[in-house]
Task: inverse folding
């Protein structure tokens, strides 16, 4: 799973996981475990919701967070 931050128009950004990056022709993105960035529940979702579909026309942009299994790249240091 890929952890991302989704920025929706006129709403607070939320953190979630996606199975894979969406294709350019996708109209929706399916997200799992949606939550606020501080871990709290989203006020507009029921407590039992674990996945939701977000239409692309509501999304401003998506940030892809680094995963823990990627190795750190050290750049040139003087």
Result:
């Amino acid at each position: 799973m890929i952890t991302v931050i989704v920025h929706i128009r006129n709403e607070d950004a939320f953190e979630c996981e996606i199975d894979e990056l969406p294709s350019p022709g996708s109209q929706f993105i399916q997200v799992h475990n949606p939550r606020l960035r501080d871990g709290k529940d989203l006020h507009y979702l029921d407590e039992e919701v674990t996945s939701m579909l977000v239409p692309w026309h509501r999304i401003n942009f998506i940030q892809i967070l680094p995963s823990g299994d990627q190795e750190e790249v050290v750049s040139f240091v003087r």
User: Anything to note?
Assistant: The mean pLDDT is 88. The chain has no helices and five strands. The first strand starts at residue 2 and ends at 8. The radius of gyration is 15 Å.
